[in-house]
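Ticket opened by: R.M.
Priority: normal
Category: complex prediction / small molecule

The reporter submitted a protein together with uridine-5'-diphosphate-glucuronic acid and asked that the result be attached to this ticket for the collaborator who will pick it up next week. Submitted input follows.
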Amino acid sequence: MQSKSVITVLGAGYVGLATAALFAQAGFRVYVVEPNKERLDTIKQGRSFFYEEGLDSVIELGIKSGSLLPTDSYEESVPKSDIVFSCVGTPDNPDGSSNLTYVFDAAKTAAKLMKPGTVYAQKSTVPVGTGSQIQQLFAGMCVDIDYVSNPEFLREGTALADTLFFDRVVVGGESSAAIDAVIDAYRDLEDHRDHIAHIARVPVAVQGDQYIATTLNSAELIKVTSNAFLALKISFANSIAMLADKANADVIEVMDAVGADRRIGRSFLNAGRGYGGGCFPKDVSGLISSALEYGVDLEIMHAAQNLNNQMPGYIVDKLQDELGESLNGKRVAVLGLAFKAGTSDVRKSPGVAMANKLSYAGAEVITYDPEAREEAAPDLLNHILQAETIDSAIENADIVLLATEWRQIIDYPATLLAEKMSGSILFDAINQYDALEAQRAGLTYIGVGR
Ligand code: UGA
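Result attached by the on-call engineer:
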């Protein structure tokens, strides 16, 4: 790709920083614009300000070679660029809709600086119809910019692997030249991916590798529909888990067999404490409110959302039932605070929600997480303690609750658990621990829907 050799990425969040660092290894000069000084300084030193597996090594290389250029300035970056990726945040409004202030501000500021023919690619998750509004904004400013939607499908914790070895790259817009320009950039990334995977120690795992060109509105809807469907699968699995709890069935056996039907698939049918993070909760509420603006009531998504919100409470109630007495004064070790393994992100984390609920119920709560201690601290109730190691968290615990599937948590030997705890209840809220091993060690194993 000769003519499109400069990229600007607006926003150095989970998506923006991974995107910038990877394109910087694929032959592009990449500016990454981050207004937060502390974060920017960290990136300039060749590191990420959040934990994401493999990311630091790619950033470090980009900084050393000069292909990754962190800046807080639109003026320095945008005018030189052939493609501008917008990866700014879309926090949710109190009513559940997406707050698009940063999305519009970024587009407006960049539009004043982009050279004619620049492609503006939206990666931030936005409600369907947003791109058309931004196109109108550009038309009103009389700028010659092609707008496309290029939704992001990477997951936190596996951001690099998901971007390098993708199922699909979706680009939607009106200009086929602009769509091609963005697809070409991804093809360049694909050409370099084995080398980048080696640097980042990401396993090579070739996926579907599909490039899909669509209309603008379809691309926007593809993104939120994908997340909504995955959230739906999780809530569906959790509602069957509740039934399995009552009917004395095992939801893992059920989902293994149900998921063996290729029409259904096994992924995202893991029952447990429900979904968290910066995407599913926000995207589900965003989809519900954006559909309402079009006069469509997505009742099915309301149901998925309500069920998910109930899960931490359901687990604490189930624990209380099994215990047969009050949680008051019981020492509970909550292992895992990140919303999933592989990240330090605690946004809408079920682990944090369960720790707080247990503490409200009078339990003496001590938590452990290998990466999320600092980020979780402001969200945990005051008297909840954070341990430095699993060993110190479980010491003398009456109950151990597993909340995040970190390897060191699910691989922790049951015999050691039994030895160090003073009680014997192991509540596996992620359904990932070896139940037989726990039982053999004399523990009372409780899962969700098991
Ligand atoms: C999700 C999507 O999977 C990505 O494709 C998308 O790009 C991203 O949102 C986004 O919109 O930016 P992410 O939130 O990083 O990615 O993480 P997931 O792996 O999807 O997990 C989300 C939550 O669901 C986690 O709390 C996880 O523990 C939970 N989960 C996942 C379950 O409870 N059960 C499952 O079977 C799978």
